[in-house]
Design brief:
339 residues; Rossmann fold; seven-stranded mixed sheet; five-stranded parallel sheet; 14 strands; globular
């Protein structure tokens, strides 16, 4: 896998233009978004950043959001050579101020979050604070909206086309995506992440698929967490597969039945549900693991139907439940820990 994530994204989007790239629920309805649509959003947002003064190597902050604009914004920022810092929504202002001193922001994508104005005082290199809503925004700078940045990218496409292509193609596997990582508990730490490391993780996930080509992944993961974002957003891009991002408040079982994904990243609540269902099974209870024969095979089949695992052959998880991992193995389902 010699291409970078960004290069692979545009390559796949050209080849699979009409195929679904993202599945998202927003505005109260489910939407399949094709590759050409996601590419257009990322491309023109990136060009809008160039129009707003973006320079290669600057820092682009994002507060994690379930809105698709957060995904387009990250891909667009990476495309034009910015380094992204995707952070949990609950990060305290004091922690942000510390990061600002270490990595001065050129852009800050706040989504729907309202942040205190004094947090941004004295940031001379800040080009834009980018929000989703436009109500009450006025024409003041440096505040802008996703839509305005995106539209400026469309208007100025010819002006920035050469720089856009150069930046997109100039990155290599040693190029840094982000100077920080956010672990599964939301702890932010300074630890560089480059494109080559993303490719390495994708290769390890491929190996866990036991040679099976990924067609679709379903995730309830928090996109601010680095390993979760790598697994449920970047990996499908490198695979040319669809990523369906299920709301964490919904029933994952219903989504599994509907989409039949080959891989799943379930929420901790769903893993708990699976563990409880397994523990309640008289045949699969730990003290009866030694039982074999037709009754056990029938019970496993019944439990699999109960858990609605469908065609899943890989579970990405953050769980220390060894019995649950062994049950997945008996079902022929590989597990990959995200700790």
């Amino acid at each position: 896998m010699s291409r970078t994530l960004v290069q692979r994204f545009y390559e796949v989007a050209k080849l699979k233009a009409e195929s679904p790239a993202l599945g998202l629920e927003f505005g109260g309805a489910y939407h399949d978004l094709p590759w050409w649509f996601v590419k257009s959003k990322a491309k023109h947002f990136g060009m809008g950043l160039l129009e707003a003064g973006a320079r290669e190597g600057e820092y682009f902050y994002l507060l994690a959001s379930e809105d698709p604009e957060g995904i387009y914004a990250e891909l667009g920022a990476l495309t034009v050579g910015l380094k992204t810092l995707t952070l949990p929504k609950e990060i305290p202002p004091s922690a942000l101020a510390t990061l600002f001193r270490r990595f001065p922001p050129a852009f800050f994508f706040s989504g729907h979050a309202a942040l205190p104005a004094e947090l941004f005082h004295g940031l001379k290199g800040l080009h834009r604070i980018i929000r989703l809503q436009e109500e009450g925004m006025g024409e003041g700078r440096p505040i802008d909206s996703f839509r305005r940045i995106f539209n400026s990218g469309i208007r100025c496409e010819a002006k920035h086309h050469a720089a856009f292509r150069r930046l997109r193609e100039s990155a290599d596997l040693q190029t840094e995506l982000s100077p920080i990582r956010v672990d599964q508990d939301g702890l932010v730490r300074e630890s560089s992440l480059n494109y080559g490391q993303v490719n390495e993780l994708a290769s390890r996930l491929d190996q866990n698929m036991r040679g099976r080509k990924l067609q679709r992944l379903l995730a309830q993961g928090d996109l601010s967490r680095t390993t979760t974002r790598l697994a449920c957003l970047y990996w499908p891009i490198l695979q040319g597969a669809q990523a369906i991002l299920a709301p964490s408040s919904s029933s994952l079982a219903a989504w599994l039945r509907r989409f039949h994904p080959e891989a799943a990243l379930p929420s901790p609540n769903f893993l708990k549900e699976l563990s409880e269902a397994m523990a309640s099974s008289p045949v699969l209870a730990p003290k009866l693991r030694s039982l074999a024969g037709l009754k056990q095979r029938w019970e496993m089949a019944r439990l699999r139907r109960r858990l609605h695992l469908g065609s899943v052959s890989l579970i990405l998880h953050r769980s220390e439940d060894a019995e649950l991992a062994r049950a997945f193995d008996r079902f022929g389902i590989a597990t990959y820990g995200l700790d």
